[in-house]
Design brief:
Chain A: One of its GO terms (molecular function) is flavin adenine dinucleotide binding. The complex is a heterodimer of chains A (632) and B (169). By secondary structure, chain A is α+β, with helices and mostly antiparallel strands. Chain A is built from 14 helices and 22 strands. In chain A, α1 packs parallel to α14 and α4 packs across α14. A two-stranded antiparallel sheet of chain B has the order 1-2. Classes of the chains: A alpha+beta (632), B mainly alpha (169).
């Protein structure tokens, strides 16, 4: 039974807004400690059932463009941004025609998903830790924002997150190749996911080679390094002092779970759920204490005159296609916003809360991604295995950060799927069909010659992805426009986004490295950037063309800091202005380094859960009457 | 060769024979996808029986070689049918062909069915599997694909690493 009445004024210890990665972890931790938790999810909960999962898989199969949100149905009550919302213009610039209102010089190119389970339903599943120097770039290199805590403060929570998400990796290799500090003898819950044949080919031609970002720059020695994944592999019996690790199976289907079987569709959906999703955490919630209410869009955080959060107002709806919402409220001692960086900022702005510093919505960051692609001189077996199983980590750290953004290089296992839309685009091209049906078509290849040409070309496709660090900049921001509400009347997010010269210089360095990588590979470099409908992220810098994509790694919008005048939350992700209002997730990060941020977000959520537990324990301690001195 | 009489009398077998010529996959493989009937119906629905018949006649007239099709409408139908077999997606037709056929439907691309995607032939051209279906098993991505040389696995390069090298100019 639910711990509280379904309707009317309901009171909880904690309200969590959003059933994604952070919210699911916070609810798990607090429910297990005995607190009554209400989780309000704006989207539907259909993906948590096995039929719902299979339905999403079919939707993905049937989607024309297999973009990250393609398996997940649109929801008029809780609209999600989509990468297909952006179109490039013929001579540069872009048009945005979706949920976001975009007005920046360059487009914010990432999506997220408003549904039970959240955006992590379509993540790739990579879980690299941030590097210690990523937490203090201002002090060390003179740019960006420093964290109020460091790697050492977060390290135990990284381990807790690696347990909660079920990480497979090689800690010794991470320590040796990247310089990440681990406790002595630490192993991940599962052994490393095998790296791909593509990785081995790259390693055989790149390991030990030296490249230079510019002709006079110091040489950097390349090394292909495996990456940790939150993906079921082979448990390591040495884990946890020899107690080992039991992998977590699929959500919604009892007694079903597999290791990664190589479906090669982590983004946007893992058919066997070998990849971690928050639905797995939700399956372990103590449902006597954690109550999930889906199709409940929080429209406002309620606070009293002293700044204390009282609860939330939310809009409950039945039909996602034609929502007719009912307004309700819920109250709690503590409110936790875990709705995504942009949605958290939107809620704070709409509620008029937490913004004494004028930093809410500012410092919007992503990992702008530059792609490089080419053809190897023999088949490599693309479109097999997880999207990426190894990378080049040697440009993530070091003094070059003083002048340009650092970057992490992912070796893609999926051919030209990201840069060129392969293999669909290859078929169309060889058949003589351009993207524009009004243009005259080529003769086209047919029969055995078509079949052979496709095999020859697709089978040799390789690509690399350069994930650039983007430093916090106040001008990159989320605001809301009350004249442009969504279907439920909540103001939509307005984004102003651009890349700094520091990021663009990083991309120039990355492109120079990309050129050398393809030469070392003896590959035919097919990388080309230019304006066009599929290149909304095109720009010119220092006389050269670049096109960037979003990584889906939005952050910074309720930035963490060490003083209330200059930041939104403290190191516990607690709003400076409201001691019982937390805003958790990537929005709290003052910098994201070059690591895919979900693991760090999970570590932060687990750390905040400890603090929330202490807050609640203190609040519920029986009030002492009179002086306590001298009592036993 | 005398062209057969066109229109609706043309059978699934004729469609499959033509599909084999268009795709380079034999009728046995095409039947094996389970998609032949659906694709035949889709082609008939999208451009109409007479146009499919004219395409089949044009292919016959070219001696069964799609390269010999000169009529641009028939050729674009050939592209569309090949595209459907390879990807499971009926594509947009060339705008003039769409107009010439007088189609009373939008000229939009669509995936014929969820299974059509997973039965796409394109994956087989490079010994792959459709992304999201027919997974080959844990760790198989580490093996060389057919026709590729073996390279050292991670951990096998314990010694003899090449020293620092410079990338070419």
């Amino acid at each position: 039974m639910s711990p509280a009445p379904r309707h009317g004024r309901a009171r909880y210890d904690v309200i969590v807004v959003g059933a994604g990665l952070s919210g699911s972890l916070v609810a798990k931790e607090l429910g297990d400690k005995g607190w009554r938790v209400l989780v309000l999810e704006a989207g539907t909960g259909t993906l948590g059932s096995w039929p719902g999962h299979l339905g999403a898989l079919d939707t993905y199969y049937a989607a024309l463009a297999k973009v990250p949100n393609s398996p997940y149905r649109p929801n008029a009550a809780a609209p999600s941004p989509d990468v297909l919302d952006l179109t490039g213009l013929p001579s540069g610039g872009y048009r945005s025609h979706g949920y976001f209102l975009q007005q920046g010089p360059l487009p914010y190119g990432s999506d997220y998903l408003r549904a039970g389970g959240g955006t992590v339903l379509h993540w790739l599943g990579l879980t690299p830790r941030m590097h210690p120097e990523d937490f203090r770039t201002r002090r060390t290199y003179g740019y960006g924002r420093d964290w109020p805590i460091g790697y050492d403060d977060l390290e135990p929570h990284y381990r807790a997150a690696e347990r909660a998400l079920g990480v497979a990796g090689d800690a010794a290799e991470q320590a040796d190749a990247i310089g990440l500090p681990f406790p002595d003898g630490y192993v991940y819950p599962m052994r490393a996911i095998p790296r791909s044949y593509v990785d081995d080919v790259f390693a055989s031609r790149l390991d030990g080679a030296a490249v230079r970002e510019t002709p006079g720059a110091p040489a950097t020695t390349l090394r292909v390094v495996g990456v940790p994944h939150a993906r079921n592999g082979t448990p390591d019996p040495r884990y946890d002092g020899g107690r080992g690790y039991r992998p977590v199976g699929a959500a919604g289907l009892p007694n079903y779970g597999e290791r990664c079987v190589g479906n090669a569709s982590c983004v946007p959906i893992c058919p066997v759920q070998a990849k971690y999703t928050p639905l797995k955490t939700q399956a372990s919630w103590d449902r006597r204490r954690v109550r999930l209410l889906t199709q409940a869009v929080v429209s406002r955080v309620l606070a009293d005159g002293t700044g204390r959060a009282l609860g939330v107002e939310y809009l409950e709806y039945e039909d996602p296609a034609a929502p007719a919402p009912t307004t309700r409220t819920a109250e709690a001692d503590i409110v936790v916003l875990a709705a995504h960086a942009i949605e958290n900022a939107r809620l704070l702005l709409v509620s008029g809360l937490g913004n004494h510093s004028d930093q809410v919505g500012r410092n919007l960051m992503d990992h702008p991604v530059l792609l490089g692609w080419g053809l190897l001189d023999h088949p490599v077996g693309p479109f097999r295995g997880p999207a990426s199983t190894a990378g080049l980590e040697c440009f993530r750290t070091g003094p070059a950060r003083r002048s340009r953004s650092p970057f992490r290089i992912e070796i893609s296992n999926w051919g030209w799927s990201w840069p060129e839309g392969s293999p669909g685009s290859d078929v169309a091209r060889l058949l003589g069909m351009g993207a524009d049906p009004a243009q005259p078509r080529g003769k086209g290849l047919f029969g055995p010659r078509l079949r052979a040409a496709l095999g020859r070309e697709i089978g040799r496709q390789v690509s690399v992805q350069f994930l650039m660090e983007q430093e916090a900049e106040e001008r990159n921001r989320v605001t809301v426009d009350r004249r442009r509400p969504d279907r439920l009347g909540i103001p939509r997010p307005v984004l102003t986004y651009d890349l700094s010269d520091r990021v663009k210089s990083g991309m120039a360095a990355a492109k120079a490295v990309s050129d050398q990588i393809f030469r070392l590979l003896d590959a035919e470099d097919r990388t080309a950037y230019g304006p066009g409908p599929l290149s909304p992220g095109w720009f010119r810098f220092e006389g050269r063309d670049f096109t960037f994509n979003g990584a889906g790694h939005g952050g910074g919008t309720h930035v963490m800091g060490d003083a209330p005048g200059t930041s939104v939350v403290d190191s516990w992700q607690r709003c400076w202005d409201h001691p019982n209002l937390y805003a958790v997730g990537c929005g709290s990060m003052p910098s994201m380094g070059t690591s895919n941020p979900s693991l760090t977000m999970a570590a932060l959520a687990l750390r905040s859960s400890e603090r929330i537990h202490r807050d609640l324990t203190a609040a519920h301690r029986p009030a002492a009457v009179g002086p306590q001195e001298g009592r036993p | 060769m005398t062209p057969k009489t066109s229109t609706s009398a043309r059978s699934l077998d004729d469609f499959l024979t033509a599909s084999a010529a268009l795709t380079g996959f034999g009728a046995f493989d095409l039947h094996g996808t389970g998609m032949a009937g659906l694709y035949h119906r889709t082609a008939l629905e999208q451009v109409g029986g007479p146009a499919v018949g004219r395409f089949l006649d044009a292919l016959d007239a070219a001696g069964g070689d799609p390269d010999g099709i000169t009529d641009e409408t028939a050729r674009d139908i050939a592209r569309a049918i090949a595209h459907m077999w390879y990807l499971g997606v009926w594509p947009q037709l060339a705008a003039p062909v769409h107009t010439a056929l007088g189609r009373e439907r939008a000229n939009t691309a669509f995936t014929v069915s969820p299974e059509a995607y997973t039965e796409g032939l394109v994956w087989r051209t490079f010994d792959g599997h459709p992304a999201g279906a027919k997974p080959p098993g844990f760790g198989t991505w580490a093996d060389p694909p057919p026709g590729a040389p073996a390279v050292p696995r991670a951990g096998e390069r314990t010694s003899g690493l090449p020293g620092p090298r410079e990338a070419g100019p």
